[in-house]
Amino acid sequence: MNPAVFVDALQNELQHIQYGQNPLELYEPIRYIMNLGGKRMRPLMTLMSAYLFTDDWQKAIRPALAVEVFHNFTLMHDDIMDQAPLRRGQPTVHEKWNHNIAILSGDVMLVNAYQLLLDVEADKLKRVMNRFTRTAAEVCEGQQLDMNFETRWDVTEAEYIEMIRLKTSVLLGYALELGGLIAGVDDETTRHLYEGGMNIGIGFQLKDDLLDVYGDPVKFGKQVGGDIIANKKTFLLIEALEKADGALREELNDWLNQAEFDKAEKVQAVTAIYDRLGIRQSTEERINNYFDHGFTNFDQIRADPDRKNLLIQFARQLVERES
Amino acid sequence: MNPAVFVDALQNELQHIQYGQNPLELYEPIRYIMNLGGKRMRPLMTLMSAYLFTDDWQKAIRPALAVEVFHNFTLMHDDIMDQAPLRRGQPTVHEKWNHNIAILSGDVMLVNAYQLLLDVEADKLKRVMNRFTRTAAEVCEGQQLDMNFETRWDVTEAEYIEMIRLKTSVLLGYALELGGLIAGVDDETTRHLYEGGMNIGIGFQLKDDLLDVYGDPVKFGKQVGGDIIANKKTFLLIEALEKADGALREELNDWLNQAEFDKAEKVQAVTAIYDRLGIRQSTEERINNYFDHGFTNFDQIRADPDRKNLLIQFARQLVERES
């Protein structure tokens, strides 16, 4: 099986989904944000996971897209909360329309996600819905923690990892679990799927933080050092704040408190502090740790080796990405 | 059976619901808005409906509260959109906390509503969820229409009624339908329940518009004429705009366009225009029409007469309310 088959199946269904018709102001923003693209990573994971256990992976297509619609709902509402002007290089919904429309379209997107999930077979519905509902609440909890952290300077590593686990990783875990639930696998297998997805997800998110500082400027695609310029509380900064003392701590605090500065100079100076504290190595270790855990979770899943290989290759791409 | 038994059962369960714990900022606003009170009309309707067909009406308690939590979620988000400072005499969530918290707490409330609904028996889940999801989308559609109407002066009666049907009445319909679905009644009966609730709901909402102008100031509890002062596009105003012509139309337009005016004078003048156009009578006719339809729907339901009488008495209170 070529993974492109899954991508095509998702694209095809995405073109046919009716989110709703009237009033237009409510449904047009849904079509807009869903058409901004993205890697469709989550629904792809659901299909690959279902295919591990069944030839009838097509029955997972609409539930898989429930996860994608839910993810895009969170983006629409997060963009309001973060006052973000752009999403994937295009105006965000609250900018293109207005705040009220972004709130209400987002609400109906969450309802749409449930609608798509209702496509699963009746005997599997309760578990699928229970787990989705728990996951959805956790994603909201993660977003609230993220907002809380903006005004705190004493966030610990453990708190930060719990925040990214809730905000982003549990949904990757659920995306894989869902494929198993639809295929009707046992509890132990769904647990391996969920934890595998979640661990890869945490590693993936930490790698995001790492690449922002240590990414190859040519391959990275965004400005390297953006997080440093914005004082964004990443894993690297939290680790540095925990490790630095004496003159180094003072120097770091100075940069964090400077209202006006030369951007390149700040990036260079803070990166140098990270270097002296060994932040790159310790972050890489942590990332590899989560990735290793994830692959160990996958090892424990009993499935056809070729099919499992598809999933593992996909996860490897996430691990080895440089942008 | 005394209806107070249903009220007590709901209150008791409401005190025990765990919406969630961490982070506190996310879940505290849910407890706050749920504790502002209200008549708990919707969940009460679900319990009375279930009791029509089964002694085991207690199994409908948590699903009934799903409807109440959903309703309060819509209030939390509508209050942001309407920039409302107060809800039941207390600060709204976005005023007491902030906009972002009101958005995100609302989101997790919608998820909580689904969680409560998952309490229904597995073999009934798909229908219950399908109908809830359709209803939830319609409520959002109604809210969007309501916002659209704010800037339009050519809203027709039919459009207005469709808006209130979606925004408020379908949820009353669903509240009754849900009791039947949980009790496992046939499609014809659920249709009578749904349509009965919806028709009573439309009449109820139109009566709201009527009482605002023609309510007894002593019994009404709010300032009579509030809608006239605010130029609120009620059924009465839409009907008046459709019927008035010549000098009367000019006089009405003058009052609508006046930026500064004596409130009592405007209320008196616009009410006099309504009187001359026979708006009170035609609105009352329309209300009675919807109520009659609703009671005809109830007539067609086969159930124990004493139990049916409970529901009918409850609906009568809604019909005959003066505040």
TrEMBL record, chains A, B:
Q: Which cofactor does it need?
A: Mg(2+)
The protein's matches in Gene3D superfamilies, at most eight in alphabetical order, are given as:
Farnesyl Diphosphate Synthase (1.10.600.10)
Q: Name one Pfam family in it.
A: polyprenyl_synt
GO BP terms: namely: isoprenoid biosynthetic process
Q: In terms of domain of life, where is this protein from?
A: Bacteria
The family database entries (InterPro entries) matched by this protein are listed as: Isoprenoid_synthase_dom_sf, Polyprenyl_synt, Polyprenyl_synt_CS
What keywords sit in the KW lines?
A: Magnesium, Metal-binding, Transferase
Keyword Transferase in record: yes
PROSITE patterns (UniProt xref): POLYPRENYL_SYNTHASE_1, POLYPRENYL_SYNTHASE_2
**Keyword Transferase recorded:** yes
Single GO MF descriptor = prenyltransferase activity
Give the family from UniProt: Belongs to the FPP/GGPP synthase family.
Protein name as catalogued: Polyprenyl synthetase family protein
Q: Which source organism?
A: Spirosoma taeanense
